[in-house]
Amino acid sequence: MTASEFPLIVTLADAAHGRTIAVEADADARKAIARRLGLVALDRFSLSAEVRAIAGGIAAKGEVGAEVVQACAATDLPVPATLAEAFDLRFLRDVDAPASEDDEIEIGSEDLDLLPLEGDRVDLGEAAVQTLSLALDPFPRHPDATRILAEKGVLSEEAAGPFAALAKLRGKPGA
């Protein structure tokens, strides 16, 4: 198990009795998570979950909440966002059963949130950080980005696209 910026270890013994978890990351953890995920800032990061034992492992269902600031993909201006991402994870012993190269593996939607159980414990904090990383906008855009880019002379996709020249020609007589 690798070190996590937000470690929250849950064991099979914890899950056997059922457990409700509600935690907030402290400032140091938020700073480390922000650095790892390439965020400008992570002002809040919380995890709430119900953990229980299931056949072959641990189930965790809950929500990750965060207030993030990302850099605009076009202007590098700060783009704040509030995220609330639900998760329903299963940590199972035999998730990573080896398959040969020739085996065809079909994955259904029910298999997407299956993770390996490492020994008798899982790092639910690490799973929460990974859930946050998947919830982030891959190309955040500041609300004023289009205006700012236009002022700097950057053409929009419509103005610079392949049909822009044709549109200009259509309006000219004799063209």
How would you describe what is shown here?
This protein has 175 residues and is α+β, with helices and mostly antiparallel strands. It has helices at 12-16, 27-37, 124-135, 145-151, 157-160, 164-170; strands at residues 9-11, 19-24, 41-54, 57-71, 78-92, 114-116, 121-123. A hairpin with a 2-residue loop joins β3 (41-54) and β4. The chain is elongated. The mean pLDDT is 84.
Number of helices: 6
Question: What is the straight-line distance between the termini?
Answer: 67 Å
What is the helix/strand order?
Answer: EHEHEEEEEHHHH
Poorly predicted runs are: none
Q: What is the SS-derived class?
A: alpha+beta
Instruction: Give the overall form.
Output: elongated
Tell me the strand percentage band: 25-35%
Major sheet, described briefly? 5 strands, mixed
What value does the average pLDDT take? Answer: 84
Query: What does the radius of gyration come to?
Result: 23 Å
What's the arrangement of strands in the largest beta sheet? Answer: 2-3-4-5-6
Relative helix content: 25-40%
Count of strand segments: 7
Write the layout of secondary structure elements.
Layout: E1 9-11, H1 12-16, E2 19-24, H2 27-37, E3 41-54, E4 57-71, E5 78-92, E6 114-116, E7 121-123, H3 124-135, H4 145-151, H5 157-160, H6 164-170
Parallel strand pairs: 5-6
Antiparallel strand pairs: 1-7, 2-3, 3-4, 4-5
Short key terms for the protein model shown above:
175 residues; two-stranded antiparallel ribbon
